[in-house]
Amino acid sequence: xxxxxxxxxxxxxxxxxxxxxxxxxxxxxxxxxxxxxxxxxxxxxxxxxxxxxxxxxxxxxxxxxxxxxxxxxxxxxxxxxxxxxxxxxxxxxxxxxxxxxxxxxxxxxxxxxxxxxxxxxxxxxxxxxxxxxxxxxxxxxxxxxxxxxxxxxxxxxxxxxxxxxxxxxxxxxxxxxxxxxxxxxxxxxxxxxxxxxxxxxxxxxxxxxxxxxxxxxxxxxxxxxxxxxxxxxxxxxxxxxxxxxxxxx
Length: 249
What we know:
Strand content: 5-15%
Radius of gyration: 18 Å
Shape: globular
Strand order of the largest sheet: 1-3-2
Number of helices: 13
CATH architecture of the largest domain: 2-Layer Sandwich
Distance between the termini: 27 Å
Largest sheet: 3 strands, mixed
Order of helices and strands: HHHHEEEHHHHHHHHH
CATH topology of the largest domain: Zincin-like
């Protein structure tokens, strides 16, 4: 059985660039594919941890982990082992890695001002990129990673890729459709958990208000990698689910 890393390495060029999802790159059934994705994500998270400093454990980091576990416990998809980590980066930032790894910066949590459901919106948005395979699809199409996987073992290739171009890839914007889908997923998941479905709107409104402030530069990367805040707000208001229709998987 090939790991995901091996499968990508063996299928370079057009096969990788045209892959729509993990099943196009890994033979076998869905369970085999998911297991390969989890192994690949574990390698990638380990490489990330070598390069990103985590925030020290405190009340805020524990609260964020509790919220993440609360969300994960209410997902229909139970097979992904979600892990939540808070980084010590200076700017608001969040990133999703295949296999269930969510990294969020302390400043991103600060913007939520301790509001549980606003933090849940940030984490749920990143979880959507994992559950919907947005994160995986973006990474497996990277030609540099494919080449490195051909030359090195899985963990060494992933580490080399992250050092060379991986951070730029992970910081690159998803498609507009992916981002709006992730917003809607987060809201639905919060509602299923018994939280406030309007929390995401409140957070985006706060960010929108801060755009005109002098500290907007701190929001630069986060704003640049997502659709305009008014568009995200309009989409959430138009698609806010009822209790009966909320059903992220």
